[in-house]
Amino acid sequence: FQNRNHILYLLEEYQTLVLVGDTGCGKSTQIPQYLVEAGWCEGEKMVGVTEPRRVAATTLATRVADENGTMLGQTVGYSIRFDDCCQHGVTKIKYMTEGILMREMMADPLLRGYSVIMLDEVHERTLFTDILMGLLKKILRKQKKLRLIVTSATMDAEHLCNFFNQSTEKDKKSAVIMS
């Protein structure tokens, strides 16, 4: 993925990054690893990656753990309904279904355990995706250090960027598009 440094730069500058890329280009597997390498998981913070389907969450977690040479459930884990393969304080990248993130929001409305949330496959537009986007927009207003990455293979990026841009200053944006 040749855009590693540019992605990291945009996350330092903007609270929300709308990332459009072809299927299989490494959005789901490489970006979370870049974030860990760049220090986004200091302390007990994690990168949370939501997937619309359980099989995607478990498969991606397994693949990224293999790429890192670690056991699944340590640095890289997953959480789906009835199966949580993460260790508190140890797991840095957590793949999960959208429903799990919604459940976590009920226990911790500001998502204090995360430094970055990545909503993957938003072009599939599930009900959970839409609810999460609305809730995350509100959370980002309160949690200025939290970052959001919205990834899609086909979605209208301009529309998403406008939705998340919360700045009241005309020359300062809080969301940016990268394709």
TrEMBL record:
Domain spans labelled Helicase ATP-binding: 8-173
Catalyzed reactions per annotation: ATP + H2O = ADP + phosphate + H(+)
ATP-binding found in the keyword field: yes
Key words of the record: ATP-binding, Helicase, Hydrolase, Nucleotide-binding
Family in the record: Belongs to the DEAD box helicase family. DEAH subfamily.
GO cellular component terms given for this protein: catalytic step 2 spliceosome
Highest rank taxon of the organism: Eukaryota
InterPro entries membership: DEAD/DEAH_box_helicase_dom, DNA/RNA_helicase_DEAH_CS, Helicase_ATP-bd, P-loop_NTPase
Alphabetical list of SMART domains matching this protein: DEXDc
Top EC class, one word: hydrolase
Stored PANTHER family: ATP-DEPENDENT RNA HELICASE, ATP-DEPENDENT RNA HELICASE DHX35-RELATED
MF terms in GO: ATP binding; hydrolase activity; RNA binding; RNA helicase activity
Keyword ATP-binding: yes
Enzyme Commission no: 3.6.4.13
Protein name listed in UniProt: RNA helicase
